[in-house]
Write a structure and sequence with these properties.
276 residues, Lysozyme-like, two-stranded antiparallel sheet
């Protein structure tokens, strides 16, 4: 019986030891990250072109000549998410197991602590399927920021403070245009609701991250086609109602129904002009 209870306690003891380790509880995943980045470095350092053959099977001669004019690719968009989970610990676990196949460049805890999980120049699995303008592979050209929030609560002041500081650094480092700070639902309106109507987009716009409508709005003109305006902003309008709901979650926030109101049209008319 004593051995049986010891057996039950062993997993908890192992976790406690790992959490107290000088290397921290994520030492194993940190090691895997380093190994994977080394593999990517090896790919980048390849200097022999792939063997090419024409339709008859004849080999096409090729050679490597290194140019002196090149640089590393950099992100051009920022996608903001809420985690839709119950704690920062749960999210870090989700992003450090292979079965989920999801990740983000940054995660912000409720107390404002920032976790950097993927190098800015690497591709994180955060945006998934969607479309913004002509961009369909958003993972390859964006940074993903996850904020610890279950989707039904306001974001903490500490989180927004950290987010604003992080966005300022990112915008300056990569010269990201103001229009290119968007939410996950903006990119994937048929699949995702985040970062949701509690997210303070107006505050972000005041700091130069994304846009917001003016305090005084003109009436949308007669014949104003909201689907065309949404498309010009960047929304995928293959499902117009989903695109409208995504827009309202971001720019209206007091009403997220799929029916356009006069206020919606006025806000949309004002906002879409900023994206032109």
């Amino acid at each position: 019986m004593k051995n049986y209870f010891l057996y039950l306690l062993l997993p908890g003891i192992a976790m406690a030891i790992a959490s107290c380790s000088p290397k921290g509880p994520y030492a194993a995943t940190d090691k895997i990250y380093k190994e994977q980045t080394k593999a990517y470095v090896a790919v980048i350092q390849r200097q022999l072109p792939d063997s090419l053959a024409d339709s008859t099977g004849m080999q096409i001669p090729s050679d490597w000549v290194g140019t002196v004019n090149f640089g590393i690719r950099k992100p051009n968009y920022v996608i903001i998410h809420f985690t839709a989970q119950d704690s920062i610990q749960q999210t870090l676990h989700t992003f450090t197991i292979t079965s989920t196949q999801v990740s983000a460049h940054y995660v912000i805890a409720k107390n404002g602590k920032l976790f950097h999980m993927v190098n800015d120049y690497l591709r994180a699995n955060q945006a998934g399927l969607g479309k913004w303008g002509s961009v369909t592979d958003m993972n390859s050209c964006s940074l993903g920021i996850e904020i610890d929030n279950n989707g039904n609560e306001p974001f903490t002041p500490a989180q927004i403070n950290t987010l604003l500081a992080l966005l300022a650094q990112i915008k300056k480092a990569y010269n990201i245009p103001q229009a290119n700070f968007i939410g996950h639902q903006d990119f994937a309106p048929k699949r995702k609701p985040d970062p949701g109507p509690f997210f303070p987009w107006k505050t972000l716009a005041q700091h130069g991250f994304g846009y917001w409508s003016d305090d005084v709005l003109e009436l949308a003109p007669d014949g104003f086609d909201y689907t065309i305006a949404l498309k010009l902003i960047g929304y995928d309008v293959s499902d117009p109602k989903a695109a409208l709901v995504a827009f309202k979650r971001h720019f209206v926030q007091t009403d997220i129904s799929p029916q356009p109101t006069q206020l919606d049209m006025n806000v949309l008319y004002n906002v879409y002009q900023k994206y032109q």
